[in-house]
What does this fold into?
Amino acid sequence: QVQLVESGGGLVQAGGSLRLSCAASGSIRDSRIMGWYRQAPGKQRELVAWMSNGGNTYYLTSVKGRFTISRDNAKNTVSLQMNSLKPEDTAVYYCNQVPSTNDWGQGTQVTVSS
It folds into this structure.
């Protein structure tokens, strides 16, 4: 069982940038695909981006070209660089495997003001 701790969120103006980090308590090397999810108030959690061990990536259409996911298996970390942020990116962001497990962390709040 891997515990996940997300950090790096905050309040930023539209057009700004944030870098989220996810630290895993155990090895993520066996997690073939690691991803970032988000949940906005009143909405279902959605998958924003993922990266496989082989370096393949996926991005939600609305974040493509603005967000970049990366992972460091040696450090057991997954990161999400978010540029050109929009108010609609406001949500709590979580990392987890893809497909997700029940081992959700506390998430990190991202708030983008207009």
